[in-house]
Design goal:
Blueprint (H helix, E strand, L loop, with lengths): L3 E6 L9 E5 L2 E8 L2 E6 L14 E2 L2 E3 L6 E3 L5 E3 L8 E2 L1 E4 L2 E5 L1
This protein binds FE2/S2 (inorganic) cluster.
């Protein structure tokens, strides 16, 4: 069953600086894209390495290891060598606290 978890505050999550946390065994990266917040699993489906150190280009994150690309908003893979989409997590804001449903 999914639950909402406090992740971080709005002030702490700035564009270009994802916040990473592990919740219930899921490494999760939270991104601020122009004031909208998105949470994806921080594990590249290609080799299971963390994505969050990679550069963000528009709405995409580029895996720093072999260059796969993913849409941060939808988790969709947009360039190889990964071929699977990323799990995404619902996000909500309660009184300045960003919560993620895991
Ligand atoms: S681990 Fe991400 S592209 Fe290889």
């Amino acid at each position: 069953m999914s639950e909402w978890f406090d992740f971080t505050t709005k002030e702490a999550c700035q564009p270009g600086h994802p916040i990473v946390k592990a919740i219930n065994g899921h490494p999760i990266a939270l991104f601020n894209l122009n004031g909208e917040y998105y949470a994806i699993e921080d594990s590249c489906p290609h080799q299971g390495l963390p994505l969050s150190d990679g550069p963000v280009l528009g709405n995409e994150i580029i895996c720093p290891y072999h260059g796969a690309r993913f849409c941060i908003k939808t988790g969709e893979v947009t360039a190889p060598p990964a071929y699977e989409d990323l799990p995404t997590f619902e996000v909500r804001i309660i009184e300045g606290m960003i919560q993620v449903k895991v």
